[in-house]
Amino acid sequence: MAQQDYDVVVIGAGPAGYVAAIRCAQLGLKTACIDRWRDDAGKERLGGTCLNVGCIPSKALLESSELYEHTRKHLNTHGVHVGDVELDLAGMMARKDRLIGNLTQGIQGLFKANKVTWLKGQGQLQGERKVCFTSHDGKEEILEPEHIILAPGSHSVELPCAPYDGKYIVDSTGALAFDQVPKRLGVIGGGVIGLELGSVWRRLGSEVVVLEAQDRFLSFCDDQVSQEALKIFGKQGLDIRLSARVTDTQVDEDKGTVTVMYEDEQGRHEERFDRLVVCVGRRPATDGLVSGPVELLIDERGAIHVDDHCKTTLPNVYAVGDAVRGPMLAHKGSEEGVMVAERIAGMGTALNYETIPSVIYTLPEIAWVGKTEQELKSKGIPYAVGVFPFAASGRARAMEDTTGFVKLLAHADTDRLLGAHVISSRASELIAECVIALEFGASSEDLGRTVFAHPTLSEAVHEAALATLGHPLHIPPGKKKG
């Protein structure tokens, strides 16, 4: 194919890149998507980290492990009694792998249906309108599209004191592929990924210790939610240790263990584990993305500088997803991909970064959108709080799952919704209606006057809205203003 044939070349086929490519093609732009991903068997796969070793496989194992624990410990509450329950870890992992395979094939089918050209190999930006594509067999081709979208994704941050060895000390990818349940599992990092992976292996039988360097648990969440979550996870058996700064690790292959040295307010400590997972964040995978005298502004973390519409410092070059500012969330990257594609096509699309939801897929799940209470306090914004506990929900009681609550924050003067925070077994689904409400500038009264089906968990959102107004129907009234 000639160099000039493509209107758009996308580098990266994760959630940001493949969605951008599909939307470009839908808008009549001749599009190619370059991706270097290959699995352990050397097979090319679309979907990037999220689909292959991130969001999807972790949710598959979270679901399977939840069913395993629920069957073992909670079905008898419903009058359902089963015999001995056995864990087939190999079967659980095989299911996860089938799911990944089906979804990657699905993206491949979408590329074909939308006439997106999949270029398997490495893409490198070499100028304003120049991309060097190197196939897996080493052949090079220079592409000169009208527009370029950079979506290289991200990779795990490695700690110098806990270098990966692929067996005893692993990143999140390694923790999704254990061939046996570790008797004792250490997790460095008590954020989203650490909690999700720790939850999987705790349910399957591991004794899990989470070492978190910060002195506050889930500091990015609303304080009331994070405090509740810490209590719940502790009762479940996750041993979460705050202010724990890891200083060194030592692997003993003869004993098949790894020793972790860490410091906290009480002094120095040592813990021995069968496996150690390092989950201390991710950084943009921009190493090797640019070659030659290209004036693309990239910061010290590797993040590509972009404006509000994901334009880089180079004309007709955009960047989306984990490689740019903002939360490293698949859905955020996808919507940036859509926005960029539509702007290339001449549309004035924009993305509201204030209404992007976040979710932690533990049990209970934690989900939020908008402002936290501590943010509103720090900015001096007057607000009203409405909290409704699932202990007062008829549907939650029928499910034997009354953990958590819905918390809404509204402006004290205008009643406009400012933030929503949910901790419950279905928080990832319940947050969607709150996202829509914030996106459309709704007030708590708007939600309070909306009819919700009964009995449902979503009624908790309705009741929390009424609580911000001071007159909930199914808990005692009490309006709090900040």
TrEMBL record:
Binding locations of FAD: 59, 123, 322, 328-331
Q: Main localization of the protein?
A: cytoplasm
Biological process GO annotation list?
Answer: 2-oxoglutarate metabolic process
The record lists its disulfide bonds as: 50-55
One GO location term (cellular component): cytoplasm
Q: Which reaction does it catalyse?
A: N(6)-[(R)-dihydrolipoyl]-L-lysyl-[protein] + NAD(+) = N(6)-[(R)-lipoyl]-L-lysyl-[protein] + NADH + H(+)
Protein name, as recorded: Dihydrolipoyl dehydrogenase
The organism is: Ectothiorhodospira magna
